[in-house]
Amino acid sequence: MTVYESDLPGVGKKFEVELEDGERLVIVTHNTGKREVYLKANPDADGDKLFEVSDRLARKIGTILEGAYFQPVQAEAVETMLSEDTYLEWYTVSESAEIAGQTLEEADVRNRTGVSIVAIQRGDDLISPPTPETVLEVDDTLVVIGEREECAEFETLLGDEV
Amino acid sequence: MATAESTALIDVGILFGAVALAGLVANRINQSVIPFYILIGMLLGDYVLGNIDFPALLGTDLVPHGAELALADTDFVHVSAEIGIVLLLFFLGLEFNLDRLIASKERIGKAGVADLAINFGVGLLLGYSLFGSFLAAFLTAGIVYISSSAIITKSLIDLGWIANDESDAMLGTLVFEDLFIAVYLAVATALVLGGGAVGEALGQIGVAVGFILVLLLLVYLGTEWFQRSLETDSHEFVVLRALGITVLIAGIALSIGVSEAVAAFFVGMAFSSTDHVHDLENLLEPLRDAFAAIFFFWIGLSTDPSLFLGVAGLIAVAAVATTPTKLISGYLGGRIYDLSERRSVRVGLGMTTRGEFSLIIASLALSGAGTALPEPIAEDVYAFAVGYVLVMSIVGTTLMQYSSAIESVVVPRLEAGIGSTSPSSDD
């Protein structure tokens, strides 16, 4: 992102912000405090004036844009990226899950899907690391690690209706 | 009966009321306010209102003669107009950014020199052929060279061009013109106040150069002093101190025969390197606009419209000659700024507007009447300048408003012309 700044003698200052797709946002800050905001479809196009606001209003809008009042967070964070393609996810074992009631050895999750089950949360207990003999029970929360497609494969074993 | 003081107050009230109305009308029809301030001043002055014989027209003695109603060119109006000039140039100095000039010195220099050579050159030729004297030619050259920062800047904002690339080229060229006019006014004032005699004028130029050097030294070394001079939380004190310093220095300059406008320019420049620039701009802008309005009104008051008859031909010749020169120099300036054909044409259209600075030169010509210039020539130059500004301010504003229509006709032809030599990459 590049921001171009230039002086406008007798008027104030001009800022041009490169947006995506070659669009440019032009903000003219007058010496009086007034802000005018223009949008250019491309760097060579004429600016279309979007709006003009007083100094006070401009600061308010700026603060909202900055996220001072509300920072959107990822809703229901159920996955965390460890690297470009490695995810740490957790799933709940439902009654319809094919693997419910099987030991890890029987379920053979690693060979069938590629993901590893690294921990199991059962009620207040944390089973980590689980052993081949550990039985997967309904309502267990499984913490798994794997690539995007492997996780998707694993979800089919759980038989969850998403 | 009304006392002298109360009629003076009424006169000033009428002045402001009339100017306010003229501004309203100008705004309604999307024109610059400057020609309207001048026209209303002309209408309410001795030459128009003062010559209307209401009792004879209406056949009754109950109405006063126009001469009793007309606004006189009082000391108040004259001094206020002078303050208007000082504040206009003070702002020019305040907003003059040396760093900006140095940062893009190549483009501003090239565009500015093209602008200067074409327009000042044509102005000199034109002035000499119209008035037949060197000083009148020199003044005419200044009048037709200087574009109007005030009108152009306002049009840029009104039309939204301020967000586009053409504003850089236009404002850059104006910066060059501003610097030139500071030097030009110093020389022109010395020539006019020197009474036209070469020896005396040389002496005056020496004084002017000396005074400007002192001011430059002040600008260079005095930043800290200027900074401290406005260290206060009170807006009232900032305004009073800034006016005290600026008007006093301008007054001293004038008293020794140096242009008060140039002195104000350098004082403005001195303040421009302090932290108070923003405050000064905000606080003094309304004052500048009020006094500048009186200046334009005063120009109108001092104009005898009947003189227009004598100079109408000159005005027409000048308008026909110097509209194309600005179009060309503006277009070249745009190309120097790497702008497309369309935007370069716009630069030309915008730069045709002449205004406040041409009028400052006009008032200078009038002050030399009977000394530096024979009275009839001084009056002709003055009437010529006022008429020329009335025409060019309206022509320039109108050209900018109708630019898209003009562009659609002109740009394809320019591109066709360019296309034969090198492919154009413009939109």
Automatic annotation (TrEMBL), chain A:
It holds the Pfam family KhtT_N. PANTHER family: K(+)_H(+) ANTIPORTER SUBUNIT KHTT. This is TrkA-C domain-containing protein. GO terms for molecular function: monoatomic cation transmembrane transporter activity. PROSITE patterns: RCK_C. InterPro entries: AAE_transporter (IPR050144), KhtT (IPR026278), KhtT-like_N (IPR058776), RCK_C (IPR006037), RCK_C_sf (IPR036721). Residues 76-160 form the RCK C-terminal domain. It comes from the Archaea. GO terms for biological process: potassium ion transport.
Automatic annotation (TrEMBL), chain B:
It is a multi-pass membrane protein. Pfam families: Na_H_Exchanger. It is found in: Membrane. One of its GO terms (cellular component) is membrane. The chain crosses the membrane at residues 6-26, 33-56, 76-96, 134-157, 169-193, 205-226, 238-271, 291-324, 381-400. One of its GO terms (molecular function) is antiporter activity. Residues 19-398 form the Cation/H+ exchanger transmembrane domain. InterPro entries: Cation/H_exchanger_TM (IPR006153), Na+/solute_symporter_sf (IPR038770). Keywords: Membrane, Transmembrane, Transmembrane helix, Transport. It comes from the Archaea. GO terms for biological process: proton transmembrane transport. Belongs to the monovalent cation:proton antiporter 2 (CPA2) transporter (TC 2.A.37) family. This is Sodium/hydrogen exchanger. It comes from Haloterrigena salina JCM 13891.
